[in-house]
Amino acid sequence: MNLARQIEQYLPRQLLELVRDISGQAAKRGQRVYLVGGVVRDLFLGYPNFDLDLVVEGDAVKLAQQVAESSQANLLAHRRFGTAKLRYEDFTLDMATARKETYAEPGALPAVTPGTLKDDLLRRDFSINAMAISLAANDYGELVDPYQGKNDLERRLIRILHSESFSDDATRILRAVRYQQRLCFELEAQTAQLLKRDIPMLDTISGDRIRHELELIFKEKQPEFVINRLGELGVLQGINPFLKGGGWIAEKFDRARRLKKPTQLPSLYFCLLIYSFSETGVEQFLARLNITAKLSRAIRDTLRLKTKLPLLGKSPLKPSEIYYLLREYESVAVQANAIASDTSMVHHHLQLFLTKLRYVRTSLDGEELKRLGISAGPEMGKVLQVLHKAKLDGEVRTKDDEKKLALSLSLKLER
Ligand code: ATP
Ligand code: MG
Question: Could you tell me which of 266, 262, 232, 235 has the C-alpha nearest to residue 247?
């Protein structure tokens, strides 16, 4: 099957010229270049995807160096892996030496040797991601599809390429469900069976790799669908016994996304995911996924604040009281609690903090206070604190109000 015409229509002109140029330079070196993976899949599906992956039969790093020298590209090469990234103004392009992988044991990083395009396609996760299109002059546009990926696209199936695929690399379990939900496909029957069989193999995967897959899930348009399906299949429990999907998560994720200013959506998803956890459960989760210090702080704060929510359900609370209760928590944790809480007063107070109170600043600064005769040091600290509280509570509004209050305070402090 030849896709020359489809490539021409699908790729932006600039990219098309670039891949042709690369292929031409490769030919002079006696090498062949192919488009592979996601872009081929998405070209068939008609979804835009301009993160191009190229596989080179031959040394991809040397070819990338040559291309970078003859163009405006910035080159990032990983000689050890035989891969290179070319960065242009508007897009990036990944190039990899065709390779063969063998897994000495489940979950281990594979031993890699140079190989043919077919070897390179065999090491891939699913048939729909294991297709290539030739960019060489003599068969430009020819589809290479040794594992019937196109057929699976038509049947809307996610299918692994061999029965040990999930146990070789159990991150594929998470990837399978991510693609299945994104594309509204099904897991092919035997793939589904092997997926369930190999859930315990997740134990062979490092925390960093599992976390990375969760982060990719959180970049999907509707990650809650993926999380729910992972829950139904028993995969979540294979990562942490307390993890679950379900209606609550779905509703809260949806709400998180609708926020006008989602502070950091992926972090927020993480905080909501563990919302029902005990402290011990959370510590297990943080350790298993090797969660970064900053996100760990947000996650722990989420649970700490959750235990304090009854204090925020009281009415009336002064704005300054709300501020002092909440200022010590990461803002993502406050946001997560605002989404999770079903008590309207609590929700209102948390929202008030997030949208207004945390931004309140006094109009007078240290320099201006000095000009009013207030000396730097503890006295000024005290004055600034009282001014800030008065501003939060609406007791001072203008700069003049602040000046008056500052002067009367400094008189009191002098006495
Ligand atoms: P996406 O639209 O999600 O970016 P993609 O197909 O481009 O889809 P990437 O994660 O960018 O996916 O990976 C590029 C290609 O590398 C995939 O198409 C797949 O062939 C291969 N790949 C990625 N991760 C694995 C894995 N764990 N095992 C085998 N092959 C993988
Ligand atoms: Mg990609």
Answer: 232
Q: What is the pLDDT of residues 143-167, one digit of tens each?
A: 999 999 999 999 999 999 999 999 9
Residue written as token pair 């190989």: 115
Task: Please spell the DSSP secondary structure of 356-383, one letter per residue.
Answer: TGGG---S--HHHHHHTTPPTTHHHHHH
Locate the ligand 1 atom nearest the alpha carbon of residue 38 and give its number: 6
**What 3-state class would DSSP assign to 163?**
coil
389 lines ligand 1 (CB under 6 A): no
Res. 411: pLDDT tops 80:
no
Q: Give the pLDDT of residue 262.
A: 64
**How far are the Cα atoms of 36, 125, 149, 157, 175 from residue 160, in angstroms, in the given order?**
17, 6, 10, 10, 11
Q: What is the pTM of this model?
A: 0.89
Query: What's the CA gap between 403 and 414, in Å, rounded?
Result: 16
* Between residues 100 and 415, the one the model is more confident about: 100
Of all protein residues, whose CA lies closest to atom 30 belonging to ligand 1? 124
